[in-house]
């Protein structure tokens, strides 16, 4: 699943979805950040992640339950079970909730932008989709969006009037000429 870092630094899935579990379609409602201990320094720093309540409750258990599962051979720890005390877990604050809501509103923004919005949807969802009868993949969409975002307002208006095939042709020509 495609993930993105919000301006607050929190990582969420496309459309503000939970990233605690793969393929979760629920909205992120909780902030989860690893809290390093003095005796343990992680090799990599990880951004805080957005998760839904169901996955946060399933993955992050109390220390007592964690220790009980560790001792109990019948209920072995799964790879996704973590000690709650090793993490900062809280509901989203107002700023983070607003950022997630903005991410959720992406389909409305895509629809309002016409063809460019449809290409942006393919790019952001990292998919392939038929736009105006032409199948556009994420690679082609990435080039079109890269070129479109680099143009000034006058040229953006001209570029947006092109049909999809012409947009892709021009985008590839411009990207190739930059190499």
The side-by-side strand order for the widest beta sheet comes to 4-3-7
Strand tally is 9
Structural class: alpha+beta
| Radius of gyration from CA coordinates | 21 Å
Give unreliable regions as ranges.
Answer: none
Distance between the termini: 30 Å
Query: What fraction of the residues are assigned to beta strands by DSSP?
Result: 15-25%
Mean pLDDT: 88
Tell me roughly what share of residues is in helical segments. 40-55%
- Largest sheet, described in full? 3 strands, antiparallel
Shape: elongated
Compute the number of helices.
Answer: 8
Order of helices and strands: EEEEHEHEEHHHEEHHH
Explain this structure.
The structure is a single chain. The protein has 179 residues and is α+β, with helices and mostly antiparallel strands. Helix content is 45%, strand content 16%. It is built from eight helices and nine strands. It has helices at 53-59, 63-71, 94-104, 106-112, 114-125, 138-150, 153-160, 164-177; strands spanning 3-5, 11-13, 30-34, 49-51, 60-61, 82-83, 87-91, 129-131, 134-136. The strands form four sheets. The protein has a three-stranded antiparallel beta sheet with strand order 4-3-7. Strand 8 (129-131) and strand 9 form a beta hairpin. It starts with a strand and ends with a helix. The mean pLDDT is 88.
């Amino acid at each position: 699943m495609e993930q993105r870092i919000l301006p607050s630094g929190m990582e969420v899935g496309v459309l503000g979805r939970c990233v605690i579990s793969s393929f979760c379609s629920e909205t992120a409602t909780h902030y989860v950040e690893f809290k390093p201990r003095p005796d343990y320094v992680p090799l990599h720093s990880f951004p805080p992640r957005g998760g839904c309540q169901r996955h946060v409750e399933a993955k992050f258990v109390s220390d007592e339950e964690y220790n009980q599962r560790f001792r109990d051979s019948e209920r072995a720890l799964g790879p996704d079970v973590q000690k709650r005390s090793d993490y900062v877990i809280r509901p989203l604050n107002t700023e983070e909730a607003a950022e997630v809501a903005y991410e959720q509103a992406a389909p409305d923004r895509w629809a309002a932008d016409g063809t460019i919005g449809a290409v942006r949807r393919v790019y952001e969802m990292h998919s392939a989709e038929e736009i105006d009868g032409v199948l556009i993949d994420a690679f082609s969409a990435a080039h079109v969006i890269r070129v479109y975002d680099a143009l000034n307002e006058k040229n953006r208006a001209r570029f947006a009037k092109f049909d999809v095939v012409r947009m892709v042709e021009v985008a590839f020509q411009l990207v190739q000429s930059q190499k």
